[in-house]
Amino acid sequence: MVSGHLGIALAIRASRRDVPLTALIAASILPDMVDGVYRLAGFYNRLGLWSHSLPATAVLTTIAFALALAITRRAGVAVAIALAVLVHLPADLVTGEKLLWARGAIAGLALYDYPLVDFLVEISIAIAGWWVLRRDRSAPRWATGAAAIAIMALLQVAFDIYQFAAER
Question: Which residues span the domain enclosing 26?
Answer without folding.
Answer: 3-167
